[in-house]
Design a protein that fits this description.
The protein is mostly helical. It has six helices and two strands.
Length: about 170
Amino acid sequence: MKKSTQKKQEKVGKINTDVRVILEKVDNGNRLKTKDWEIAKEHFKARCVYCGSTDNLVKDHAIPMNAQHLGRDRPGNVVPACRKCNYAKKDRNYIDFCSEKPENRNPAKYGRKAEQAITEFMREQGYKGLSRNKATLEEIKTIIDKARDVAGKERDKAATEIKKRIAK
């Protein structure tokens, strides 16, 4: 892997970590619990919501917990996915992923049906994204960017202070 690609991935990872910390605070530290995961698996009959596989199920954030989508680790946003589909979906929103050509996935369980099933599950679980209004979503992203900037400056100041003390 090229150094520039690796640095970019590290930067994106750092941004997404910061976003996750902020979103956890928005939710007052209330994260998905084991019982919520069990409910999701039961709802989807212990099958991957995207392809119907029962192999190697993992938690998938239908709306990713990243700087672009601002999904949350809450009931309704976490669905079972096999590792293959979870990897293929990567950091995309479930709606975008479900609208793509199914390729090697079971068309009966994939695409529009999967999108509808996830949307209905979110509704049943009372999951609400931060905003369905793009303008408000952009405002939230701006607030997060400002918080990250301040935190970055504070980290730099802390590092400088630590270096001074070590040098003594």
